[in-house]
Design brief:
By secondary structure, this protein is mostly helical. The protein is 66% helix and 0% strand. The chain has a domain at 7-43.
């Protein structure tokens, strides 16, 4: 048995620990995380590459 959990297991446990959070709120959180990740990636692509010193 792996000592690490699969991502679906982690998500299932998160939802089980927070039963008061609706499916719609989980979807909103998921979209917010995607948007934040996309913004980070786009910002990194636009920034000039730094030369190692």
């Amino acid at each position: 048995m792996s000592r690490f959990s699969s991502w679906p297991d982690v998500k299932r446990r998160m939802r089980e620990r927070r039963p008061e959070v609706s499916a719609a709120e989980w979807a909103d959180r998921r979209q917010a995380a995607r948007s934040a990740t996309e913004a980070y990636v786009l910002a990194r692509q636009k920034s000039p590459k730094q030369q190692p010193s």
